[in-house]
Amino acid sequence: MTPLVQSVDWVAIAPPTITALAGLAALVADLFLPERRKPLLGGIAITGLLLAGLSLLPLADGDRSTFCLTTGSGACSYEADAFTLVMQLLVLGGALLTAVLSLHATPALPAGEYWFLLLSSAAGAALLPASRDLATLVVALEVVSLPAFALVGLRRGDRLSSEAALKFFLSSVTATAVMLLGISFVYAATGGMHLTDVADGLRETPGQLAAVARTGVVLTLVGFAFKIAAVPFHFWVPETYVGAPLPVAAYLSVVGKAAGLSGLAVVTVVAFPAYSHVWGPVLAVLAALTMTAGNVAALRQVPTGAHSAVRLLAWSSVGQAGYLLVPLAAAAYTGTAGVTVGAAVAYALMYAAVNLGAFAVAAVVGRESAANRITDYRALYARRPFAALALGFFLLCLAGLPPGVIGLFAKVVVFSSAVDAGLGWLAAVMALNVVVALVYYLKWTALLFARPAGAGDGAGAGGAPGEAAGAPGAAPADRPAAPVPSPSPVAVPSPVPVSLTAAVALAAVAAGVLSGAPQAVMRFASAALL
């Protein structure tokens, strides 16, 4: 009797497997390590992620498949192709930088649970781009999401953290339910679960099932649109990022988006090409709405400076998600889906490095100011030159301005994909949003190098030192101002943990390398063909 499924290719599935095993090892080791030895768990996690990254090297030789049917179509559930390789590199690299960033934060969190949940979620994110059937895609997406809920609410006794976790959970459950309904419609119309079988079935869908198939295609995209924080599935983002431990917010902003991008790219390009006339316009509208909502909301955070910098980064990440959706929408209108998907991957690589770096600098500032307001970054260069220069570089990359060359190249590639697909209106919306984003990125960058408040220029933007405009205790406008004391010497800032410095430095080096060889990065990403 012929077996239904072939033997397992352990080399192909090594990246997510090693990541998951490292998470399990950290959880078991936590049971036996005394409190003073808990930092070793971070070493286990980082070692596991490094080994998982090294396991990608054998996959560069060629495509590999496993969990394939031995009868019928011979479709496979797991494919380690060029797209999988690039996306797993992005996911594991993002998780590794998050782990380094987390080393300073874990003493305030239950270490064993934290590392287990982080690596479990990363394993799901590494599995997702290789998934080639709808069931595996759903499982991978839930493996990404379920540990993330717990990570957001891991600060026990913190009301803000618990509230953020609950909002994240309820929003995600709703999106998943809608996606499962869509998958059931697709299965009813095609009778298949493997993506290639679904693609063949949709090309031959009987007329009476066309409406079912069309509805299923749209609803299936909802779960992945939620992970990438596309409008209108983005409302959880600002509250969740602010309430979560800062390394978790950084992780969600990069690895969570990579998971959503992977799922959207796989289901649209591989499973639903016959219905590109349905999902293409949907993604194009979502891209326009997402980038506009994110950038306008981020712009509103800047004028007073009293808002949280993490909230600004959260809205910025929503705007960046809109740019990521542009090449996927363009794939519906061109015959070169691989090239347009490569543009999305290239932009994701740039975004991952610089956004994680921005969150790392936010962690540095957060050690001095728990509120982590935008005004707390005023004159950061005078206190911490390296952090200020790094954050300025990251913000210029996100804005697409020199010396952030990789940001400029990535935006040009995404813009070109819209123009080549005949989506002139979407390219115009993107151009307008890039200009809007310049305002808040440049204002924040200028604040880093401004003179300290009270040093001869009054309170400057944001009011008195450490005090937001309109904050309780500020003097009314009609009350005579108190004499301004002579500026005191700048206090020596407290030393930054080595792990935080390393996280900022790694992100800066990655962004610098990407900016130094942008064409090589684009060629590498454009190889991520589906």
From TrEMBL:
**Keywords assigned by UniProt, alphabetized:** Cell membrane, Membrane, NAD, Quinone, Translocase, Transmembrane, Transmembrane helix, Transport
The top EC class, named as a word, is translocase
What sections of the protein cross the membrane?
12-33, 40-60, 80-102, 114-131, 137-154, 166-189, 209-236, 248-272, 278-300, 312-333, 345-365, 386-410, 422-442
Which parts of this chain are annotated as the region Disordered?
Answer: 466-488
Q: Which HAMAP family match?
A: NDH1_NuoN_1
Subunit structure of this chain's protein: NDH-1 is composed of 14 different subunits. Subunits NuoA, H, J, K, L, M, N constitute the membrane sector of the complex.
Q: Matching PANTHER family, A to Z?
A: NADH DEHYDROGENASE
Q: What is this protein called?
A: NADH-quinone oxidoreductase subunit N
Tell me the organism. Streptomyces thermolineatus
Read off the lineage from the record. Answer: Bacteria, Bacillati, Actinomycetota, Actinomycetes, Kitasatosporales
